[in-house]
Write a structure and sequence with these properties.
Blueprint lengths: L1 H30 L17 E4 L1 H4 L5 H13 L9 E3 L26 H10 L3 E7 L16 H11 L3 E5 L8 H14 L5 E4 L17 E3 L8 H12 L10 E3 L12 H13 L4 E3 L8 H7 L2 H7 L8 E6 L2 E7 L5 E7 L6 E6 H4 L6 E6 L4 E2 L4 E2 L1 E6 L3 E9 L1
Parallel strand pairs: 1-2, 1-8, 2-3, 3-4, 4-5, 5-6, 6-7
Antiparallel strand pairs: 9-10, 10-11, 11-17, 12-16, 13-14, 13-15, 13-17
Helix pairs in contact: 5-6, 7-8, 8-9, 8-10
Length: 403
C-alpha cells in the first residue's frame, strides 16, 4: 500500500512540476506582448543571416579564405540582401591555450590574429562570428573548448570585436546543457559587447523550451548534410518546436547547403523555401567566392527572404499532410499569409490544395496570391482555396493578401 501511495505521490509531483513549468511559460508569453526573447539583448529580432565556414571548408580554413569571403559577400551583393555575419567555425585556434589560459588564433592559418580579422570584416560593413564548445575541447578536438573558461573567453571575444558566437556541445563533463550553455550566456552579457549567441546543442534537451532565456537561436537538430533526405529530416524535427520561435530567439535546423552540389536546383529551392517560412537562420554554407548563377539566384530571392525576415516572426507550421503531399502555412504582418505546397514524391507531379480553414484565413475571404519564385501575381483572385500542380521534389510558395 505504501509503495502505491509513494508511486502516486511521485507521479503527482512530476505532473505538478510539469504543469507549473508550462503555466509559467504561458504567463510569460501572455505578458510578452511584443513576443521578444526573454534574453532580450537586442539582437536577433529577425533570424540571423550570413555565412559559415564549416559546410564547405570544415577545418581547411584560414584568414585569406575569410577575407576573400567577406570581399565576395560585398562584391556579389549578398551583403545588400541581408547576409551580414562572416562566421568562423571549428579549427580557428591553437591546439592549446596560452600560459594565461587564453584562446589564441592559430599562428599558421591566422597569422594576423583574430582582432585584425574582425577589423577587416568590420571595414567591409560586415560582422565577425566565432566558434567554441561547451566542453573541454571543440568537436574537431583541434582546439580547446570553453568549459571552465567562459568568463575569460567571453572577455577575449569581446576584446577582439567578435559579434557572434556559435557554441557547440562536444567533450563535455556530463553536466546539464542548461547549466553549461547558461554559463556562457551570463559571461557574454558581462563582457561588455553585444554578441549574438547561437546554441548548437543538437536538440538533446529540447533547447527550444529554454533557449530564449539563454541565447538568440538554438539548434533543434543534429548536423545537416547535403542531401534531400537530411534536409527534410532536419526541417521536420525543427517544425515540432514552431511555437517557440519569436523575435530575439529562433529555432535552428542547421546551416544552408545550397550551392554545395548534393541536390538539384528544385531541391535547393525547397531547402531555401522551407528555411524561410520556418524563420530559420539563413546561414550560407557554400563557397561564395565561386557561386553559380543558379545558387546566387536562390540565395538572393528578396521576396522569399522577406518572408523569413517578417517582423512578427511567427514560424510556419505543417498544417496538412497527405502521403508525400504537404501544406505549410503561417501568418505574416499586414494580415498576410505564407503558404508552401510541397511534393516530396520522387517521380510524380501532383495537385495540392490549401483550404482557407487549414491555413488560418476566414472561409469567405478573397485574396491576391503572389508566386514568390515566379515573381508573378496570379491574375484571378481566390476565395476559399488555392490549388496548384507541384513537380516531384519541388514546392510552390505563395504570399496571400486579402483584397
Amino acid at each position: 500500500m505504501r509503495k502505491d501511495i509513494l508511486l502516486h505521490g511521485m507521479v503527482l509531483l512530476l505532473f505538478l512540476g510539469s504543469w507549473m513549468r508550462v503555466e509559467a511559460r504561458r504567463m510569460v508569453a501572455a505578458d510578452d506582448d511584443d513576443r521578444r526573447s526573454l534574453l532580450d539583448n537586442g539582437l536577433g529580432l529577425t533570424p540571423q543571416m550570413g555565412w559559415n565556414s564549416w559546410n564547405y571548408f570544415a577545418c581547411s580554413l584560414n584568414e585569406t579564405i575569410i577575407k576573400e569571403t567577406a570581399d565576395a559577400l560585398v562584391s556579389t551583393g549578398l551583403a545588400k540582401h541581408g547576409y551580414e555575419y562572416v562566421n568562423l567555425d571549428d579549427c580557428w585556434a591553437n591546439y592549446n591555450r596560452t600560459l594565461k589560459g587564453e584562446l589564441l588564433g592559430n599562428e599558421m592559418t591566422f597569422p594576423s590574429g583574430i582582432k585584425a580579422l574582425a577589423d577587416y570584416v568590420h571595414s567591409k560593413g560586415l560582422k565577425l562570428g566565432i566558434y567554441s564548445s561547451a566542453g573541454f575541447r571543440t568537436c574537431s578536438n583541434r582546439m580547446p573548448g570553453s568549459l571552465g573558461y567562459e568568463d575569460i573567453d567571453a572577455e577575449t571575444f569581446a576584446s577582439w570585436g567578435v559579434d557572434y558566437l556559435k557554441y557547440d556541445n562536444c567533450y563535455t563533463d556530463g553536466s546539464n546543457e542548461t547549466v553549461r550553455f547558461g554559463k556562457m550566456s551570463q559571461s557574454l552579457r558581462q563582457a561588455g559587447r553585444q554578441i549574438f549567441y547561437s546554441l548548437c546543442e543538437w536538440g538533446y534537451e529540447d533547447p527550444a523550451t529554454w533557449g530564449d532565456m539563454v541565447g538568440n537561436s538554438w539548434r533543434t537538430t543534429g548536423d545537416i548534410n547535403d542531401t534531400w533526405t537530411s534536409m527534410l529530416w532536419n526541417i521536420d524535427q525543427n517544425e515540432v518546436y514552431a511555437e517557440y520561435a519569436k523575435p530575439g530567439g529562433w529555432n535552428d535546423p542547421d546551416m544552408l547547403e545550397i550551392g554545395n552540389g548534393g541536390m538539384t536546383k528544385d531541391e535547393y529551392v525547397v531547402h531555401f523555401s522551407l528555411w524561410a517560412v520556418s524563420k530559420a537562420p539563413l546561414i550560407i554554407g557554400c563557397d561564395v567566392r565561386n557561386m553559380t548563377k543558379e545558387t546566387y539566384d536562390i540565395l538572393t530571392n528578396d521576396e522569399v527572404i522577406a518572408i523569413n525576415q517578417d517582423p512578427i516572426g511567427i514560424q510556419a507550421k505543417k498544417v496538412k499532410k497527405d502521403g508525400d503531399l504537404e501544406v505549410w502555412a503561417g501568418p505574416l504582418s499586414e494580415e498576410r499569409t505564407v503558404v508552401l505546397l510541397l511534393n516530396r514524391a520522387a517521380t510524380k507531379s501532383s495537385t495540392i490544395t490549401a483550404h482557407w480553414e487549414e491555413i488560418g484565413i476566414p472561409p469567405n475571404t478573397t485574396v491576391e496570391a503572389r508566386d514568390l519564385w515566379k515573381h508573378k501575381t496570379l491574375k484571378e483572385k481566390l476565395t476559399g482555396e488555392l490549388t496548384v500542380t507541384v513537380r516531384p521534389h519541388s514546392c510552390r510558395l505563395f504570399m496571400l493578401q486579402p483584397k
